[in-house]
Specification:
With 283 residues, the protein is of the alpha+beta class. Among the domains are: 8-53, Helicase, Ruva Protein, domain 3, CATH 1.10.8; 57-153, Tetrahydropterin Synthase, Chain A. Helix content is 48%, strand content 22%. It has helices at residues 8-18, 22-31, 36-53, 85-88, 91-107, 112-116, 129-140, 180-194, 206-222, 227-245, 260-267, and strands spanning 61-68, 74-82, 119-121, 126-128, 145-153, 156-162, 167-173, 251-252, 255-259, 273-280.
Length: 283
């Protein structure tokens, strides 16, 4: 067995490089006879073991991050999960999520698997996001992973993060008009608050329409209305659903005298929403 003395300075140096705990760093250096590169590999292997041992754990906490590209024509949302609210609120965990979002908006990977293969800078080296997640798992001791990843593209994309990184919205406008940033933020806040199912009624899928009609018909029959009136009244209720649940037809929260479409027309004639995504933590 080696008699090499591991000093506090050595432990601190490895800790600064990897972010691992002091005892883990001391053990890694002891096991590798003070070889820093080998010690880093040791810690990464430990992270993989921790990740494997926690695969059956629930990771419903975390953060949701929205980012847009410098030209404002593309945005991404990622949800990075962990096991506890304590870790989710940690500044280093939030910074890690932001770094992943930055790589995503820069490189536009097609899906979570492709995102995990992108490289990211760490204190030690540039490794893949997937490898970095394993490293963080070993360091933090909790199951960590990316559960959601969305892309929105358009003439003007605005990102909005609500609350303590628990909900994020991307909204694309049809033009980069004067006042588009402020208007886009207002519409993004509308989406966060009102959770529309589509931009307008043409975007509502057939399954949702059928379900809403069936619910309406059952309600009307329960009220004792004649069968010959059911169809007509149910169509009226469907129109009410469109008004309440599709973005452009919703009352604008900041000015209920207008709907969202009318509000956007006051910013620039013809301005509208071309796409949006709303991601809530754990939903």
């Amino acid at each position: 067995m080696s008699t090499l003395q591991i000093t506090a300075s050595d432990v601190n140096k490895l800790r600064q490089q990897t972010g691992a705990g002091m005892m883990d760093c001391k053990k890694a250096l002891t096991e590798t006879n003070g070889d820093f590169e080998a010690a880093i590999d040791y810690l990464r292997k430990k992270g993989a073991k921790v990740a494997a041992s926690r695969q059956d754990r629930e990771s419903n906490e975390g953060v949701v991050i929205a980012r847009t590209s410098e030209d404002g024509k593309r945005g991404v949302i990622i949800e990075l999960n962990c096991e506890t609210d304590f870790v989710a609120k940690n500044a280093e965990f939030i910074a890690f999520a932001n770094a992943i979002a930055n790589e995503a908006v820069e490189n536009k990977p097609a899906d979570i698997e492709a995102l995990s293969q992108l490289s990211i800078d760490t204190d030690v080296s540039r490794i893949t996001i997937g490898e970095s997640i394993i490293d963080k798992t070993g360091k933090i001791g909790e199951k960590i992973g990316i559960s959601k990843y969305e892309i929105v593209e358009g003439e003007k994309v605005i990102a909005y993060i609500h609350g303590n990184f628990r909900l994020a919205v991307l909204v694309a406008l049809s033009a980069n008009a004067a006042g588009a940033d402020e208007a886009g933020k207002d519409v993004a806040m509308q989406i966060a608050a009102m959770s529309p199912v589509a931009i307008d009624k043409d975007g509502v899928d057939a399954t949702t329409i059928e379900r809403e009609l069936e619910i309406a018909k059952e309600q009307i029959r329960a009220e004792g209305k004649p069968e010959e009136m059911v169809e007509k009244i149910s169509l009226g209720k469907l129109n009410k659903f469109y008004k309440d649940s599709t973005l452009l037809n919703q009352e604008f929260v900041k000015d209920p005298s207008k709907n969202v479409a009318q509000f956007l027309s006051t910013v620039e004639k013809g301005l509208t929403v071309t796409a949006f995504k709303r991601i809530a933590l754990g939903a």
